[in-house]
Amino acid sequence: MSAPKAEWPLWEVFVRSRQGLSHKHVGSLHAADATMAISNARDVYTRRQEGTSIWVVKAEDITASSPSDKDVLFDPANDKVYRHPTFYDLPDEVKNM
Amino acid sequence: MTQEMDLNQRFEDYIASDQKIEAKDWMPDAYRKTLIRQISQHAHSEIIGMQPEGNWITRAPSLKRKSILLAKVQDEAGHGLYLYSAAETLGISRDEMLDALHTGQAKYSSIFNYPTLTWADMGAIGWLVDGAAIMNQVPLCKCSYGPYARAMVRVCKEESFHQRQGFQIMLNLSQGTTEQKEMAQDALNRWWWPSLMMFGPNDASSKHSEQSMRWKIKRFSNDELRQRFVDMTVPQAELLGLTVPDPDLQWNEETGHYDFGPIDWSEFEQVVAGNGPCNRERIETRVKAHENGAWVREAAAAYATKSAERTSSQTSAA
Asked: What span, in angstroms and rounded, lies between the C-alpha atoms of A55 and B132?
């Protein structure tokens, strides 16, 4: 068996399922270039009319936050309950608010 | 060391509270290895599973049946691709997985090492093999590893068409001429036991089961799922007017389940060990397809490199 050769790059695929919704990550695939990534994504991820638009992004071009930074990044929002409307107690007489 | 203990604790907490583990989260090595083994075997099964049915595409009895079978085999390819990319999130490369398949290091479901002798086999595979696969796969939609669970949701959505088209083939044959009905019965006779074996060894002798259940990769035991499959399928066989090839099969009023005869595990072991009717042929076909496609992969990569160079030289010149 031959030694592993250089693979085609990995692309992340995002599909807009219908007009009015945002693109959503659906999975990934390998393709030599962007054009091929789009047509492969069509065949792999939209065989049953799951989409009206496809984005492909090279996986290596994505910068992601690290799970170990989760606390640092997201904890500051924890103690700011006043950002939510339910924080404010209003008299029952107040309508439409 | 303490840091690793913290990480392990967080992992255990996630599992305990039914939260998903995602690709970049810390996970124990053994969990990662188990998933790579299971997901890649699952992907290989989908890809090798294209062959028994691909065998009948050119001989399907009508254009409608041919289109359906083509769509089904294309779905199997798609399922393989979803699963390979889910496995890649765990740090194994596509090439490594394909090499493991091609060299025989990696296993795939032993059911695909049986030949498809008649058109009725397309019915039996859809009805029984895909039926058993659905039974196994639906609980995997809730498995603890996010990318695998999400891939399985897509697979399961598509799988139910597979089972229904198979049952319809069996239904048409069993309502047809005597020869057609015999053909359907013969297919059931050949596929019944291998389908029961798809659920894997009995719980007592299943070496990976217990840990996988603890990690919530697996949600039900092999024997539980096998029993559910029998309970679901026997009435369907009756509806078809076909006989399940098991003299011990009978409804047990007390348990509310069907009792069924012992499985010939020596056959299963033989097929898993590589001595099934088609093991060699399946791998040879796969390797040949891979090798015949090599020039396409190389040419496309060369074209992509060249176009990228051309674009960048044009940009720098301007």
From this structure: 35
* A94 Cβ under 8 Å from any chain B Cβ: no
Using the predicted structure, report yes or no on whether residue A1 has a pLDDT greater than 60: no
Does residue B3 or residue B160 have the better pLDDT?
Answer: B160
DSSP state of B275: I
- A10-16 and A24-30 beta bridge pairing: antiparallel
Instruction: Decide if the complex's ipTM is over 0.95.
Output: no
| Range scoring the smallest mean pLDDT among A5-9, B73-77, B177-181, B192-196 | A5-9
Residues of B in contact with A58 (CB under 8 A): none
Q: Check the CA dihedral B175-B176-B181-B183 and report its sign.
A: negative
Please give the pLDDT value at position B6: 87
Q: Is B156 exposed, middle or buried, given 0-12, 13-18 or 19+ CB atoms closer than 10 A? A: middle
Instruction: State residue B317's pLDDT score.
Output: 65
pLDDT tens, position by position, A34-81: 999 999 999 999 999 899 999 999 999 999 998 888 888 888 777 888
Q: Are B91 and B79 in contact (CB under 8 A)?
A: no
Q: Measured between beta carbons, which residues in chain A are less than 8 angstroms from residue B103?
A: 1
How many angstroms separate the CA of residue B287 from the nearest CA in chain A?
9
The residue among B121, B137, B112 whose CA lies nearest residue B48 is B112
What fold does the segment set A5-65 form as a domain? Ubiquitin-like (UB roll) (3.10.20)
Phi, psi angle pair for B259, to nearest 5°: -85, 140
Q: Do A27 and B25 touch (CB under 8 A)?
A: no
Q: Can you give the residue ranges of every domain in chain A? A: 5-65
User: Taking residues B239-246, what's their average pLDDT?
Assistant: 98
d(CA B290, CA B278): 18
In sequence order, the 6+-apart residues with CB closer than 8 A to the CB of B227 are B257, B258
Q: What angle do CA B242, B127, B196 make, to 5 degrees?
A: 85
> Is the pLDDT assigned to residue A5 strictly greater than 60?
no
Per DSSP, the three-state class of B250 is strand
